[in-house]
Design goal:
By secondary structure, the chain is of the alpha+beta class. It contains 27 helices and 17 strands. β6 and β7 form a beta hairpin. About 1% of the residues have low confidence.
């Protein structure tokens, strides 16, 4: 793990400047184990290193040769394949950065799709007069860029880009509205004017005054895999998942893993233990809730721990609130904190670092990779398979999932709502008083501000016509490509880096994701079970209590209690004193009414999320003002 920064002054007649050192210093938290930079004519590139693996010859270092300079924050999972294909000798050390340079020599701007793993890199190609940047397929590693008047600047974090003296530090006002509304439709947007996020699976080519961003990879929702039996699918899933975990632990000792007791984190922890050939146990980090007992999953955590060679570390998940560490996390992420339960991950990163763990496996969003497959009900309705629809919905209603309470709700969400034409849905929302998309998203956004920012258009879907997925595979694809997932990965990456931790995500292995998307819907949705292919594939690795589990715990009660009780003073302090920059964006009368409901004990979880977004936005704007004054 590490970080990269750099810039290129395309016009040879203009001075280059000496900004690289201050850019590297701006992201110094990403490189406690070394830093370096390369000056190549009109370009300068910086590299930081955080040593997280035991194979030091693979640690990232800047690379230069002839007319090529490369920096990367990368962990390549197909090193052996690349060495073979690129005729790189197997003897002697070769870094991932050098392999990326060799890949660029061989395949040019198409090289990112030949790589597997987590990466963000930049190549300055002096021969062809261009700067090429790319980000991995799923967006695990972050990368941002700015370009104006022949100057291109990039960095792993926004603060690294802002450290260049030519880059203006100006707020991008539309993001205020999207944050308050809780949407991330425009993945390229950041909170800073002119600074752009490079999306997952994309490359950026800057050639003189031209900056072209394009996709080098995407999932194919039209592809369907056909194998001979349920067991064949399960065996292939097991093969891919074990390989995904092994590739993320091969250079790590000891191994650390989050463990909530859910299917995904349990799959990762149990597989890491299954593959572990050392005497060192797998270290697990779990949140337990003695006070907010409805969030506690100790029963399932202990079932996993009894199943293998683990050293467990319990953390009190109900000790802190979502604003407890807002100063530390806000500094790390270059924007308002969007993920309300990130404080729990922050505490696990800190605990892992204290135990000498450098890499922490995480089962984040395995639900999305494999998919619950509920939209299969929509498919059955469209094909007229009503008897099968009835049977499947009846069985699915037995699943103890906190989102779905009855067969009626399932049929409403996945049949009626998805197959009803949009004009009729519009009439229904109007009859129910839910026709204002801004009001539905957040009751405190000022309507004039929302109109000025075009927020109503973004929320109503008029810019991207609303067409709910009518097949399980299309719904699965939409979930996998939703921008929110990339934002959460970026936030996790930055907060983990402040504690010297590299999170690794087996469920975001490119090959595993492609396989799961191509599965027939019956391998995801199986009546009274979802994600059936994983349950079958890992049945010999999971304990039975996990393999047969059908419920899912919500952390909302702990969030609500933490915000309204443990962090109540901080919440009041933040939301009762809006900075001038937000006065036109937030309806202070509606905000006051909402605060009053909280004081009277009448607030719901949705009110908590609304106040949380206001509080984190206020905190960021204040923190930003203080930093600009220094």
């Amino acid at each position: 793990m590490g970080g990269i920064v750099g810039y290129w002054q395309c016009d040879d007649r203009k001075p280059v400047g000496e900004d690289i050192e201050q850019m590297v210093s701006a992201v110094k938290n990403r490189g406690p184990d070394g830093r370096g930079d390369i000056r190549f004519g009109q370009a300068a590139l910086g590299q930081l290193r955080m040593q997280t693996g035991i194979l030091r010859d693979r640690a990232a270092r800047p690379y230069s040769e002839d007319s090529l300079a490369v920096v990367a924050d990368a962990r390549l999972d197909n090193r052996n394949e690349l060495r073979r294909r690129l005729d790189v000798p197997t003897s002697g050390g070769v870094t991932d950065v050098e392999l990326i340079a060799r890949a660029y020599d061989e395949w040019g701007t198409d090289c990112p799709d030949e790589l597997l793993g987590a990466f963000a890199f930049a190549v300055f190609d002096r021969t062809n007069g261009r700067l090429v940047c790319a980000r991995d397929h799923m967006g695990v590693k972050p990368l941002y860029w700015w370009c104006d008047d022949g100057l291109a600047v990039f960095g792993s974090e926004v603060k690294g880009v802002l450290a260049h003296r030519a880059v203006p530090n100006e707020m991008f006002e539309p993001q205020i509205g999207t944050h308050l509304a809780g949407i991330h439709h425009e993945i390229e947007w950041t909170f800073y004017e002119g600074i752009t996020r490079l999306p997952a699976g994309c490359r950026l080519v800057i050639d003189g005054d031209n900056a072209t961003m394009s996709s080098y990879w995407d999932l194919d929702p039209s592809k369907e895999l056909r194998l001979g039996s349920d067991q064949a699918y399960a065996d292939r899933f097991r093969e891919l998942f074990l390989d995904a975990v092994e590739r993320r632990t091969g250079d790590v000792n000891p191994v650390g893993s989050t463990l909530s007791g859910g299917l995904d984190s349990s799959a990762v922890a149990c597989t890491a233990d299954h593959l572990n050939e050392t005497q060192e146990p797998v270290h697990t980090f779990s949140q337990v809730f003695d006070d907010v007992t409805e969030c506690d999953e100790r029963e399932y955590i202990e079932a996993v721990l009894d199943h293998g060679n683990f050293e467990s570390h319990y953390l009190a998940g109900d000790r802190d609130g979502p604003l407890t560490y807002i100063d530390e996390m806000g500094t790390a992420i270059d924007g308002p904190l969007f993920t309300p339960n990130m404080f729990l991950h922050r505490n696990m990163y800190r605990a892992a670092a204290e135990e000498g763990i450098a890499v922490l496996l995480d089962g984040f969003d395995g639900d999305t990779t494999i998919s619950h497959g509920y939209t299969y009900l929509t498919e059955l309705a469209q094909t007229g398979s009503f008897l099968q629809l009835y049977k499947q919905a009846r069985e699915a209603a037995k699943i103890e999932h906190f989102q779905y309470r009855s067969m009626r709700q399932l049929l409403w969400k996945y049949v009626i709502a998805r197959l009803t034409p949009e004009p009729l849905r519009h009439v229904w929302r109007k009859m129910k008083g839910h026709d204002d998309p801004v009001e539905r998203a957040s009751p405190v956004i000022d309507t004039t501000f929302a109109a000025k920012m075009g927020l109503d258009i973004l929320l109503s879907g008029d810019t991207k016509p609303f067409d709910p997925a009518k097949t399980a595979r299309q719904a699965h694809y939409n979930q996998l490509r939703r921008p929110l997932m990339q934002v959460v990965l970026e936030i996790s990456d930055k907060i983990a880096a402040t504690h010297g931790i590299e999170p690794r995500y087996p469920f975001f292995d490119k090959r595993l994701v492609e396989f799961c998307l191509a599965l027939p819907p019956t391998q995801k949705f199986g009546g009274d079970r979802t994600r059936v292919v994983m349950r079958r594939g890992l049945e010999e690795i999971y304990p039975e209590a996990i393999a047969t589990r059908t419920d899912k715990t919500s952390l909302s009660p702990n969030f609500k209690r933490g915000l309204f009780e443990r962090d109540s003073d901080r919440l009041e302090q933040l939301v009762n004193d809006l900075p001038p920059v937000l006065e036109g964006a937030i309806d202070e009368g509606k905000l006051t009414d909402l605060i009053e409901r909280v004081r009277n004990g009448e607030a719901e979880s949705e009110d908590g999320i609304t106040l949380w977004r206001v509080a984190t936005l206020v905190h960021w704007t204040r923190q930003r003002s203080e930093e600009q004054e220094l």
